[in-house]
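User: Hi! I'm working on a homework problem where we have to compare a predicted structure to a textbook description. Could you give me the structure for the chain below?
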Amino acid sequence: MDNFSDTIQRSRALLPAHAHNNAEEKPAQEGGCGVVGFAANVKISGRHIFEPSCQMHNRGNGKGGGIAAAGLDARYFGISQEMLDSCYLLNVAYMDSGIVKELESSFINPHFDIHHIHQMPTVKDFNALGLETKPPDVKQYFVRVKKDVLSKFSKPFAKAAHRDIEDEFVWQNSFKINQKYYASLGDKKAFVLSHARNLMIMKIVGYAENVVKYYQLEDMQAHIWIAHQRYPTKGRVWHPGGAHPFIGMNEALVHNGDFANYHSVSEYLKERNMIPQFLTDTEVSVMIFDLWNRVYKYPMEYIIEALAPTTELDFDRLPKEKQKIYAAIQAMHIHASPDGPWFFIIARSQPDANEYQLLGITDTSMLRPQVFALSEGKVQIGLCASEKKAIDAALGSISKEDSRFRPIADKYWNARGGSHADGGAFVFKVKPNGAEGELRCFNKFGHEVKADPEKIACNFSENFASAGTIAEGDEIKRLLENGSAPELFTLISGKISECDYMKLRWYIDHIVSHGSGRNTASAIETLTLLNDMKYDNGHKKRSSVLQIIRSGIDSLLHNTPSIAEKKSGNSEYCRITYATKDLLRPPAAGEKILVVDAAEFEPEGENCDSTLAVKSYTLGWKHFVVFNLKGQRFHGCGFGPGSHEIRMDLYGSSGDYAGSGMDGCQLYIHGDAQDQLGQILKDGNLVVYGSVGQTFMYGAKGGKVFIMGNAAGRPLINAVGRPRVVINGTCLDFLAESFMAGDALNGGGFAIVNGIEFDQKGALRELSLPYPGSNLFSLASGGALYIRDPKNTIVEQQLNGGTIVKLKKADWDVIAPYLDENEELFKIKVSDLLTVDGKRLPPEDVYRKIMPIQAEVLASEMADEEE
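Assistant: Happy to help. Predicted structure tokens:
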């Protein structure tokens, strides 16, 4: 009996136009796309993919945008759910409406039983949306292959499953449509957007959110949505056919990045009679996925391994049996593994299994940013995106419409590509079941990822007005009036583990109501401590607790006097918004703090709040509090040298490049930071009460930096001079590559990695691996790393140019003041850091020093000379 995959490949050899494809291939474009996706156990309206797409305009250019949805609501099309799950949704884009009948008579009517036809509605005037190119008309055919046609097609396939054969016929028929009306022509007339069951793709020359607007998808509902901003990195870059997503058979894929080995991947596919038609690296990505999934029928773990091979120390840490299997996969498919920076988001439809999937897969070298998030409860949602701000935007949009969702996720994390622990890839699986289904998250190895499902979320519809007592209210007021924010923080944080949500909301409401006028500073400080510090939340979700606290902070800041109001003389605060930015003036008598409501400001440029801050500084403002951030960038930038008198506090979803080029400013980020934080930072203080994203402090020259959580991939690359950094969590990989920061003991730079995290009760616990990556201090020529590693988990195999040496008293004298300051900022006690398994140890038994080999050799030679 013929092998199914061999039969498919032979049948594809008969497809037309295996000669040179005439579609013009453009030079590769730099990949910096914006991708986002979310999956929920309930159906979500299309309007909610709109806001995260808008948040990533800076990653797009209006020349290519697209969305895909899976687990659709059949009512949108006016059909039954059974028809939607059983029929193929043949989604055809017509640029030339004059060929509709011709295409139908050649490729649809003869081959398919048509159960329903749906014409996608559009707005009347595409120019009104700012579109320069008219999007294609889209006609949707709900079809099954005719029995006699499928019978004839299936003869070579022996005993293959009926649906497998029908899938292949649909795939090949779409190839023929694309070849005739798109790939073989200079003038493109039509192409197949998608052909899966219960999944569809829509794309245009424009921004992704305009897909939703133009095709009026705001009220269309689906379990899964994905979106892409920017044109593709190869092929016809300004054409709807070249925009993402691309279809395989049952999956739609978007991609941030570009391949160095696009040609070899294409050749690999051609050897299997799969010919790229759109000539983009995204197209071949989904073709590879479809080949390994549907044709070769590999398990998902093996597909991910073939795409992102496990290497180096991670490979050595795998079980022996897995090493054997992975070595075979790599030997067979390594030349088809995408080489270069990439991050995939994939929407999959598997209606026969009553399951829909959202996958996020990152390349082994983590050369493109990504972040994942998960919320659990009565409603569940999983998200992944290029930037956290897109996740925040999606959650914010959804939660405004449906209060069961929360604007803050229960768990956020970055993936480490090729990780032996989780594979750097995550799958959100949705199983519908009536109005509410089930969503679960799994890593590459099938291990479930959970946040805190045993804890409960807040019901914000409950009335909390009578939850507290007069005595408690008087105590809050007394502490606010005395300016004792740390004491009030200690009082409230100590009650949170035992109190219910109504009592907590009452506490925060009273802090806000009594925190006006002279008490504002004390109230903001108290709520900021509650926002920043870790403590026991009891039975309550940390995400709900933060939502309550951050709402209180926003209320306090929103109630500060507006710059448009007449100066009252009793407040040191002055609030400015986008609408009042033209009223900017120097501070009046008594005014000290400019409060910037960033909600309506643009992400960057002349109308960005960061630009406003620079203008304000020239007028005499020195302290800035920025709230309602929606991913705006470049905070702390542009103030110039010697700007040590400036302090800036950020609340909300801060964006990329915060603190980059900073030369003296004090920047405090009250939550997670994003990518490119502190690039070429020269001087100043940077404090982050959360984790930071990719390429943190690239090329930095100095400054004091404290990170409460983790750093993602490639922190401190090419840093020089004297940066001093404390990272309390860990880093994914490539920490301090090409570090060139002098001698740590003589004024040079260094980084301290404590390798710890907080448990559910806010207590410290050490990570099993303080540094999990395979590349540590590689090619460094100066500076040092100090790793809290009492179990000696760091091995020489992780180093390339570095060496591990014993911590000396001189080293401890250098780093101890920074750990003291770290304790003051984050309440992470030095005594706790020096305690291992309940026993206090000397610093040299807890911390290990890593320095460049040549520096260690030189130090040894100098010591010999002194002797």
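For your comparison, note the following. The CA atoms of residues 527 and 549 lie 6 Å apart. Residues 18-31 have pLDDT under 50 and may be disordered. Good luck with the assignment!
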